[in-house]
Write a structure and sequence with these properties.
This protein is mainly α and 384 residues long. The chain folds into two domains: 97 residues, no CATH class; 237 residues, no CATH class. The strands form two sheets. A two-stranded antiparallel sheet has the order 1-2. The protein has a two-stranded antiparallel ribbon with strand order 3-4. Helix 1 packs across helix 2, helix 1 crosses helix 9 and helix 9 crosses helix 12. The protein is globular and about 65 Å long.
Length: 384
Amino acid sequence: MNQRFYSLDVFRGATVALMILVNNPGSWAHIYAPLDHSSWHGCTPTDLVFPFFLFAVGNAMAFVLPKLEAAGKSVFWRKIIKRSFLIFFIGLFLNWFPFVRYDNTMQKIVGRPYETLRIFGVLQRIACAYFFAAIIIHLCKLRGSFVAAGTILLGYWFLCIVANPSDPFSISGWFGTAVDKSLLGENHMYHGEGIAFDPEGTMSVFGSIVQVIFGYLVGQYILAKGKTHEMLNGLFVTGCVLIFAGFFWDMSFPINKKIWTSSYTIYTTGLALMILSVLIYVIEFRNYRGGWSRFFDVFGKNALFIYIMSSVVPRLLSLIRIPGAINPTGRRNQLGPFEWFYEYLCKPIFSDERMASLLYALCFITMMWFFAWLLHRKKIYIRV
């Protein structure tokens, strides 16, 4: 049964919209707690964005992979390898882009050295999770993929504990950092935590792979059951069970996005199922659609491309310098266009700078939506 599920498009688009929103505040120092990642253990609404997107990738695979397999092995492997390589390369390109920067004096443009280029990132994680999930699904089929997913989650838990029994889940004790340092080198890792630690590194990819597999299994279930109450009830109940299982597992394997623990994978998949089941009920069963659903659907039409543009545009425009106020050293600040917009148009409106930061993010996402809407209106759909 191959029915169209508009709710899946809305779910994917809403995830992209939220991803852009939380990645582009006016000031990283002034963010409401739900719009920031958990400091370590735990899960905020922002921590749901990435796993939801990977879950949506798996949903889409349920519609696409059977067609690729039907076209023959050579077509399947060529498509999977090409798409994974392109997404990974684009992510690496974004980490280096725009290849130049201003020096500390803000007067001279210098090159961005490869020696400090971060190798991994969000798109690289998507590429790896997609690649390995597609292989597992292709080789193991439906039931085997479920078994493989469970084995990966348990195996990752085992690796964490065996590698460092005394302190397996801290930022300094987690085994994945040592692996990343040996494979990548500290200079090619993320340093946002104050030390060399990469939340999209090599060892935390296991849960991400399973997230895509779960998305695929759910997509297959939806296709098999069709728009029935049995399907809807199955999704909602399974979501509740997974949320409970994630909380239960949290007692021995903490829910943690930055090392993508197995409990985090289970918990976020459960939440994705519950939200998706509500969307299916509202959109497919009750036919409640309108401007709100079209707003998110537009983002889903060019999901990866719009996400890429949300990184490219601010970085490119940051090379344009606009004179600002005099700083304490007596030198005039030099601001990029978006920085100027935040400093002189958003901040004066609110006494609480968190509101100004949120206003900037909402303005930015509106701009990205308009860009996505123009592409959709002209029926331009950019696929990787």
